[in-house]
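Please check this record.
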Amino acid sequence: MLVLANVFWGLSFPLIKAIAFEHQQLLPASSSWFITACMLAPRFLLATAILLVWRRRALRGLSRPEIRQGVGLALFAIVGMVFQNDGLQYTSASTSAFLTQVYAILIPLWLALRQRRLPPATVWVSCALVLAGAAVLAKVDWRELHLGRGEIETLLSSLFFMGEILLLDRTDFAGNRPVPVTLLMFIVEAAASLVMIGATAPRLADVPVLFTSAPWVGFTVALTLFCTVGAFTIMNTWQPRITATEAGLIYCLEPLFASFMALFLPGIFSVFAGFTYPNETLTGNLLIGGGLITAANVLIQLKPPARSAAPAPLAPGKDGE
């Protein structure tokens, strides 16, 4: 299920790029912060509406742990996405893709410090394979790698994504219902994104212009259905079934799927929207980098790290779950 979530997040990269292209055509004077806010607010508002229709009574009987987890996940996710989306406009996509995966090595380091116990060798080998695969996949040019605004923001985003993963790993939240937690998460993210739009918009009257564009609306709906409702519901439901270390490594499959989809989706999006967004080409980097990341996940699954306590079993069928 988490691999499927990565497929959806891989789709988000060409979709976000397409939304940014269309936004710049509609409102050329927009700042990078305003473009980022206009990517986030509509997807979370629509995601909230979809979950409210799907589970009308999802917010009934919210427990205190569910509120804490939902709000916490929202804050980690929204800040991480803001830094990632804005940073991507100041650094190359390859550098961003590589630096975002830094949480794969930070998670076992954090857990080792907290538990005062070194992870097994398989964890370190898997982390090394993942970072090597991400570097190959992203075609990182080490001579050009430096810590500018884009790189610093991307590293900050990785820290917040790590916090999101670790929050889902907490055993005191094991009994929480995933759909109500996800809905609360979307509500908080939508509210924060609307505040960001108000703070960054040159004129609020510019915002409705975006909704006059069929491509912008179409890309946003796809981003919401697959990369928001689909991916985050899967993540919040299934990640607690495994350890945070395993999850962090599995999430590194995201750039592999993103690179694969960039081989053909940009051309389709360009025909639909009327802008120039060329397809990427198949190279040895995709095969080698993807192979290293896949090998890391196979290795960690052969001997997964133990967790301190197993979460409560899923109880499907109840309203709001």
